[in-house]
Every structure is written in C-alpha cells, then in structure tokens.
Amino acid sequence: MEEKLILILKDYQQKITSASTLKGLDSLFLALFGKNGEITQATKEFPKLAKEELRVVAPLLARVKAGLEEAVTKRREEIREGGYQKLTGEKLDLGSAELPKDKGHLHVITTFEEKTVSLFQNLGFQRYDAPHIDSDDFNFGLLNIPEDHPARDLWDTLYLDSEKFGIEPGKLLLRTHTSNSQVRIMREHKIPFRMMVLGRCFRYENLDARHEHTFEQFEIVYVDKGLSMANLQYLSEHLLKGIFGEEMKVRMTPGYYPFVEPGAGVDGLCIFCKGKGCKVCGGVGWLELAGAGMIHPTVLKNGGIDPKIYSGIAWGFGPFRMLMLKYGINDIRTFLSGNLKELLKYEEEK
Ligand code: DAH
Fold first, then answer.
1. Residue nearest to atom 13 of ligand 1 (CA)
2. Domain boundary assignment for the chain
3. Is residue 213 annotated as a catalytic residue, yes or no?
4. Distance from the first to the final alpha carbon of the chain
5. Is the Cβ atom of 112 under 6 angstroms away from ligand 1?
6. What single string gives the DSSP state of each residue in 195-253?
C-alpha cells in the first residue's frame, strides 16, 4: 500500500504539472478525489489493513492527499495567471484598424446647406422658414404677379384640391419658390433685417436630367436704407467664392422677375472652361445660377415698408444646379433618388 501511494503521488504530480488547461486539471482532480478516484479508493481499503501497516500508511496518505491538493491548487493558479498574461501581453490595437472605405457621410445637399447657412450667419443673416403649402397670394399676388399675368407662365405650379378645405379653387398651391417668404418676412420683422431662406420648392415639370419636381432654393431678403446692386454683387461673390473657391468670378446681367426692379441674373464664371466658352456653358463662358434684384416698390409696400425710405435686395439661388456643376453631376434626379451608390460619390467638404 505504501508503494502504491508513492506511485500515485509521483504519477499525478507529473500529470498535474504538465496539465495545460483548467479543464484538464479538473479531470485529474476527479481521477484522484472523485467517487472512484485513486485516493478515494485507497482510503476505502484501509479497513482491510493490519494495524501496524495502518500506522504507517494513514499519515502517508494524509501527506500524499495534501501534497496532491496543493499541487492542483498551485497549477490552477499558474494556468489562470498564464491566461491573463497572455491576454495582457497580446496587443489589441484598435487604433490602427483600417475603417471600411464605404462608410457613410451626410447628403451633399445637407452639407451644402450647413455651409451656406454658416457663410451668411457670419454676415448677420438670420434663418427664416416659410410654408411649403401656401396661398396664391404669398407665392404670386403679393409679389406683383397678379392672376392672369403672363409672368405666371414662368412657374409651372402644382395646385392643391383646395375646395376640400373650403378654399376657392386655384388658391392653394405647393410653393414654386422660396420668394413666398418675402412679404411674410417684411410683415413680421423690424427694419433693418437680413434674412435667409433655404428649403424645398415644387413645380409641375416634365421630368428629365435637367428638370425635377422637387428641388431646393436659397433666398435672401435684405432690407435697409441705401442698399444697391453693389451689395448684391458683393453678397453673390461671398456665396460663390465660399462654395466654388476664391478664383470664382461673378457678374450680373439684366433679367426679368416681376418682384424686382431692376432685375438681374447672377452668373458665375464657367468652372469648366474658366470663361473661354465650352459645351457646358454653351460657349458663353458664364453660367446663370440665380435670379436677383432690388425688391420692387410694390412688394415693399405689400410688406408694409415705405419704398421712399427703404430699399431691399433679394435673390434665389438653385443649390442643385450649383452642386451639379461643382461635382459634374449630369442628372438632377440624382439628389432625391436615394441611390446611395451614386450619392456616396459626392461629399461636400465642410
Ligand atoms: N423666385 C425666382 C425663381 O424661382 C428667383 C428669384 C429671382 C428670387 C429674383 C429672388 C429675386 O429673390 O429677387 O425663379
């Protein structure tokens, strides 16, 4: 029995030291101290032993048992410690992980809007929102475009079924331009004021690569004493240089809009040929990007402002057109298409 115990001790001490996992160690422990374990079995044989032998074997068994238990505990700690060191020793460098290239970004229109708003906030302009569904008056009548006036042909209007709401037919519409804000702004604010309106407009269009039924406009309405076309020129340069870069040049050409006098078109130097004349600008060297002018005296009066004392300037730019030129986008329907594959290509820097 003595020899047997010494053999078990040696055999298992070696097995325990070479165990490499906690699970392996658990099975060794069971093989020793479990129901049918070697040590348990040896203890069961004690009653059969002679008293003399028992006197030697009993303390030996106690020592073997303690020795093996200690060995298991020690090895268990070593394995745990080793695992921990392995974990801390391994470098998990998340910082250097390369991010997937196809991560998303803000829609080019959103970034354009943020940029434009900040460019004009810097000059003291305040943001104003006007309704998308509006009356014939604010969209046309009060802007010096009476009913049946041929100028209405400039805007292909989407009329709503207004009779349902008890409103005369043809009096409720989707705004065709952000100019529907002008008279509202004048009635609601004390002079002087500098306002900007950025938002959706809607027209009844035959859709193609250059016509979309829903689009954006960027309008400013600025009323003070002594404003002139020179202010308009300065502000146009501020916008176009801010979007296209410092080398951009701006000019104004005569244009007709019933709510301004004089009226103008704001042209930017063609970014493709730099004024030489190319296919995109139709050989002109310039591209028309906005309608603008000095606010018509009748419109100022409709807004409760005395045109003999005050003057106003206003414009309406088309962000879709500007972005199409900047990024060479050849289909206006891209912007609202939801086609991520296409839209992810255009990221307006902030
Ligand atoms: N509302 C015009 C349009 O949609 C653009 C425009 C022209 C706006 C002249 C203005 C302006 O404020 O003064 O075609």
1. 292
2. 2-89, 108-343
3. no
4. 86
5. no
6. EEEEEEEE-----BTTB-SEEEEEEEEEEETT--HHHHHHHHHHHHHHHH-TT--EEEE
Active site residue 321: no
Catalytic residue among 19, 314, 315, 321: 314
316 CA closest ligand 1 atom index: 8
Total-model pTM:
0.72
Q: Would you say 160 and 173 are in contact if contact means Cβ atoms under 8 Å apart? A: yes
Query: pLDDT truncated to tens, each residue of the chain (350 aa)?
Result: 888 888 888 899 898 988 888 888 888 898 888 888 888 888 888 888 888 888 888 888 888 888 888 888 888 888 888 877 777 777 766 666 665 566 789 999 999 999 999 999 999 999 999 999 999 999 999 999 999 899 888 899 999 999 988 999 989 999 999 999 999 999 999 999 999 999 999 999 999 998 999 999 999 999 999 999 999 999 999 999 999 999 999 999 999 999 999 999 999 999 889 999 998 889 999 999 999 999 999 999 999 999 999 999 999 999 999 999 999 998 999 999 999 889 999 988 87
For the CA of 177, the closest atom of ligand 1 is: 4
Which of 196, 220, 315, 320 has the most ligand 1 atoms within 8 A of CB, as the residue to mutate?
Answer: 315
Coil, strand or helix: which one is 299? helix
* Ligand 1: centre distance to CA 218 (Å): 9
Q: 51-89 and 2-18 helices cross at what angle (nearest 10)?
A: 0
C-alpha closest to that of 313 among 184, 195, 227, 190:
227
Q: Which of 57, 260, 264, 292 is catalytic?
A: 260
**Set 19, 107, 155, 184: catalytic member:** 155
Q: What tokens were used for 60?
A: 């030996």
| CATH numeric code, 108-343 | 3.30.930.10
Copy the structure tokens of residue 16: 């325990």
Q: Looking at this protein, which amino acid is placed at residue 179?
A: S
